[in-house]
Amino acid sequence: MPDVRLASPQGKWILLTTILGSSMALLDSTVVNVALPRIGRDLDANLAALQWTVNAYMVTLAGLILLGGSLGDRFGRRKVFLLGVVWFAAASLLCGLSPNPPVLIAARALQGVGGALLTPGSLALIQASFHPDDRSRAVGLWSGFGGIGAAVGPFLGGWLVAGPGWRWVFLLNVPLALLCVPVALRHVPESGDDRAHGRFDILGAALGALALALVTYALIEARAGSLAVALTAVAGLAAAVAFVYVERHRAEPMLPPGIFASRQFTAVNLVTLCVYAAFGGFFFLTALQLQVVAGYSPLAAGTALLPTTALMLLFSSRSGALADRTGPRLPLTVGPLLCAAAMLLMLRVGQDAHYLTDVLPALLVMGAGMVTLVAPLTATVLASVDTARAGLASGINNAAARAAGLVAVAALPLLAGMGPEAYRSATAFDAAFDRAMPICAGVLVLGSVLAFTLVRRPGPECCRPQCRTHGNVTAPPLEGGRRR
């Protein structure tokens, strides 16, 4: 049984290590959007290249995150976590040195592989190292500080882009890794799972990532209307069908189809797809809208987004406690509607928009909606399956959210009629943004209807979330489960 106490020097070092590692991935998931206009200008990239700068990372992260957790259980959690940190830092260095869009996109895909190793590994290290009496508080601190990192991300990214340059958004990960690795080697004990056996579902992970990549490519390049794009779309759908087939017939699949026998689990994941698709499109386009149309500097644009994450950090734990008393149906119905209203309020953000009267009201409503729904969503996912499968359920939900976000970033510009050079013209981008926000709002309304129709109150005896404080806007928090 793990026996490290949180108050001990070793406990503090372990917590520092896991926070540093997970913060690398969290920072990257929030700062890159702010840097996109400068990246496009410096590398002469069109809108499709900017979409891939976001999505290349999300494809590999969403496709491999479940496999990353399994690798840690088998080969050693510290070992796989450190591999992820080093891999992520090396890919970040390549991002920072990229001379053109293709190299940057490839490096971002490599970053996602590192993120899939270190993100589940950081939580697994906490659960494997700390005494059971301290584990919940350690996870709470890890989640809270990670949320602070996510909140600081847009501000820090804006400052770096406006000052040293966008390349430092990526290069900043290198000194973090140089600090994290020696601390982990010296203070973090190795651990594994003796019950982990059998073959890894590498084929399933590869097919899942391939399906996401091909569908994303088809959506981003659909404006061309070429035969190659059509064939890519067909290949993506074929890869998705093959993924489902493989997962249904493997002895130990990465994504066991049987887990979807729970109607509650299936319902809450459908809500997740709607909610995080809208969030992914919103934060991608809003960072561009504030700079391209409203004329904000990167620093001002990054700072402008702080209220949403700050509200989540301050009130997500209270929202979770309230949902425990009322049940998840009400917050999962009301939360998406608040977020939909926020996206319609964003239609007021045009050229020369005033922050206090045009931008801030929308972001405050957005934050209120996210506060209302994120914590209950996580709790409902955990409560909808057996306690022993809670960690798997959380990983699936996290991967579903990231996949929804990347599909939205690929599809929304197409649906809104954004041309390849739209972000270079304030008038063209503003018109497309005004078409995109109602689409996002409509997807959120659909999520609200699904929640009201399908989500039910879980029983009193179910797994409860350890992460009560949450500040990440790109995906729901990962949970290890195995607690009542």
TrEMBL record:
Location of this chain's protein in the cell: Cell membrane
Entries under SUPFAM superfamilies matching the protein: MFS general substrate transporter (SSF103473)
Record's keyword terms, sorted: Antibiotic resistance, Cell membrane, Membrane, Transmembrane, Transmembrane helix, Transport
UniProt KW Transport keyword: yes
InterPro entries named among the record's database cross-references: EmrB-like, MFS, MFS_dom, MFS_trans_sf
Pfam family membership, one: MFS_1
Lineage top rank: taxon: Bacteria
CDD domains: MFS_MMR_MDR_like
Major facilitator superfamily (MFS) profile domain location: 14-459
Topology with respect to the bilayer: Multi-pass membrane protein
Keyword Cell membrane (UniProt): yes
Transmembrane segments: 12-36, 48-68, 80-99, 105-126, 138-162, 168-188, 200-220, 226-246, 267-290, 296-315, 327-347, 359-383, 395-416, 436-455
Xref: PROSITE patterns: MFS
PANTHER family: EXPORT PROTEIN, MAJOR FACILITATOR SUPERFAMILY MULTIDRUG TRANSPORTER MFSC
Protein name per Swiss-Prot or TrEMBL: MFS transporter
